[in-house]
Amino acid sequence: MTPGGHSREVRPAAAESDIRITLPARPENIAVVRHMLGALAQTIDLPEAVVDDLRLAVTEACTNVVRHAYPDRRGALDVVVRPHGDRLEVVVADTGRGMGPSPDRRGPGLGLPLIAALADSLDIDESVSSGSRLVMSFTRTRPAMRAL
């Protein structure tokens, strides 16, 4: 009730609004993204198995940005999380050199296949004018066993 005795409608905050974090593409900021995802997952009560897959896939995508996107200069790591009902969409983007063969040959190069196996869907958006943009989605409810 308001001071004049009238009732006032209380509207909850929008439950499905985008969350965006833009950080310098440095190794220590991957942990910041992981913590943000963990806090969000706890807030929206995501199942633990989904949280594990989400955090690992997004960590791998962010690691790719840090290792490959800006070989000769500094740049940004952009992460957007979009809740859509039973699905959570995560976009990891940069404005670096884009997709292609990497001059960095350290490691087996299994990042994208790993992300594809962990996410319920993965799209590599090639329409961006520079850099790369990975769009992953994770569904709250999953079959008990998924074929990898």
Mean pLDDT metric: 83
Global geometry? globular
As a whole number of angstroms, the C-alpha radius of gyration is 18 Å
Query: CATH class, please?
Result: Alpha Beta
Please describe what this structure looks like.
The protein is of the alpha+beta class and 148 residues long. It has a single domain (20-139), classed as Heat Shock Protein 90, CATH 3.30.565.10. It has three helices and five strands, in the order βααββαββ. Strands 1-2-3-5-4 form a five-stranded antiparallel sheet, covered by helices on one side. α1 (27-43) packs antiparallel against α2. It is globular, with a radius of gyration of 18 Å.
Brief account:
With 148 residues, this protein is of the alpha+beta class. The chain has 3 helices and 5 strands; from the N terminus they run E-H-H-E-E-H-E-E.
Please give the structural blueprint.
Layout: E1 19-24, H1 27-43, H2 48-69, E2 76-84, E3 87-93, H3 111-118, E4 121-124, E5 133-139
Antiparallel strand pairs: 1-2, 2-3, 3-5, 4-5
Helix pairs in contact: 1-2, 2-3
Offer a few descriptive terms.
5 strands; alpha+beta; single chain; five-stranded antiparallel sheet; 148 residues; Heat Shock Protein 90
